[in-house]
Amino acid sequence: MSFIAVAQQLGSGMLASLSIFVLTLVFSLPLGLLVAFGRKSRIKPVQWLVKLYISIMRGTPLMLQLLVVYFGPYYLFGIRISKEYSFYATIIGFSINYAAYFAEIYRAGIEGIPVGQYEAAKVLGYSKAQTFCKIIFPQMVKRVVPPVTNEVITLVKDTSMAFVLAYAEMFTIAKQIAARVSSIMPLFVAGLFYYIFNFVVAFIMERIEKKLSYYK
Question: What does pTM read for this prediction?
């Protein structure tokens, strides 16, 4: 089986993997910031709940979380699971998982800002919202780009875990084709796609990091 023929058959799977990747980032990046705010909240019950959420998301396998999100509505509320729900469950599972990791990255970035900058902003008459948006957030973004890049690269590879919910992303389709034609070529093509995808992501994130290196 030729390389081009395999690549053509994997086309739909590539789009599926790409959709998981993009939608997960769209939801998890802002959600992670909200979780980080909750983690730093002065309201103790909120802080404890957020800490528990982060602990569960980081302390249990992503595969298990996907299964809980998928089967949870049925076993908890008796809601029948449709075939289309596998895609939504995949996005929900990935988003809440990665939001926990991004939240801790954001928190570290925020806490890395010198306290003196908060005090200076207060002297200048800035509100807390203005201080964060105009002073803290731009510096935080610069600090968190490298660790966020690592998580984004991991996300590219983790998209293959959607197979546990019977969602036909690229790796699942590659395995099906490999079994049907008794050839390792589909798996090789899938691996090449992941490598190229990660290379592009790393290149883009590196350009962003250099763009933000305004101190140099």
Answer: 0.88
In Å, how far from its chain's centre is CA 132? 23
The DSSP 8-state label assigned to residue 61 in this structure reads: -
Question: Cα–Cα distance between 179 and 154 in angstroms, integer?
Answer: 26
Structure tokens at 100: 């926990």
Please give the residue range of the domain that contains residue 183. 3-212
> Angle at the Cα of 198 (from 206 to 193), degrees rounded to 5?
150
For the chain, how many residues are written? Answer: 216
Cα separation, 50 vs 64, in Å, equals 20
CB 90 within 8 A of CB 96: no
Model confidence over 6-54: pLDDT tens digits?
777 788 888 889 999 999 999 999 999 999 999 988 899 999 999 999 9
Question: pLDDT tens digits, residue range 41-87?
Answer: 889 999 999 999 999 999 999 999 999 999 998 888 888 888 788 89
Q: Is residue 102 within 8 Å of residue 151, measured between CB atoms? A: yes
For the segment 172-216, what is each residue's pLDDT rounded down to a tens digit?
888 888 888 888 888 888 888 889 989 999 999 888 888 877 554
- From residue 171, alpha-carbon distances to 13, 38, 111 in Å are 7, 36, 39
Evaluate whether 174 touches 10 at the Cβ level (below 8 Å): yes
CB atoms inside a 10 Å sphere around CB 200: 11
The two three-digit tokens of residue 67, written as one number = 């299964």
The domain that holds 122 is classified in CATH as 1.10.3720.10
State the total domains in the chain. Answer: 1
